[in-house]
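Submission checklist for the structure archive. All mandatory fields must be present; incomplete records are returned to the submitter.

[x] Identifier: LuxR C-terminal-related transcriptional regulator
[x] Organism: Streptomyces lannensis
[x] Residue count: 230
[x] Sequence attached
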Amino acid sequence: MVVDDHRLLAEALASALKLRGHRVLAAAAPAAGAAELVITRAPEVCLLGTATPAEPGVFDPVVRIKRERPQVAVLVLGPVPSPRGIAAAFAAGASGYVRHDERIEGVERAIMKARAGEAAVAPQLLQGAFSELLNPAAQPDDEGQRLLQMLTPREVEVLVRVADGEDTRLIAAGMGIAPSTARTHVQRVLMKLGVGSRLEAAALAARTGLLDRAGPLDNARPPGADPAPQ
């Protein structure tokens, strides 16, 4: 069975496989309904196309197929994947991963391996995946993460409180520190972020997602507890 979001691709691949002597039970689209169809028809092998192998939940149909029809071998057809994409496919229960631009002979070899219970992944695909894992490409600059790394945990808490609209007195009370110490923390935060006011600091933190990364405040300090070390 061949399933892909693009019906033309599914039907073209199905026709090519028929010409090579394979019995194709169905060529279907979209891939979202793959699980139900495969469970009903129970083919030996399902070729499941996806354009986004690293997207969360994309392999949920594979999980369901393997749970209800464990004898069905699922081969994922997709773009040149990231290591995460290959790992996600196999973690879901796929028997192999075949690139969309593979020749029909390569697809056929993968089908034979899957039917024999072997993992069907081209060696060069695994080599590329391991190469990326060992030498990861530089990620785009994440301003929120960069700013967060500039601040100490205490300064992050101060920034979160500033963003919540707390003044120096409330910050000091909430953190169990002297107002003068709270004022010093605020000034350091403004200096490190390169802004001139608390309002600017709060706006920058919100825009870069820094507040989401900081997590919730721990407001469980019991009354009369010793102030935390500065």
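[x] Structure attached
Curator remark: The CA atoms of residues 161 and 167 lie 8 Å apart. The first helix runs from residue 7 to 19.
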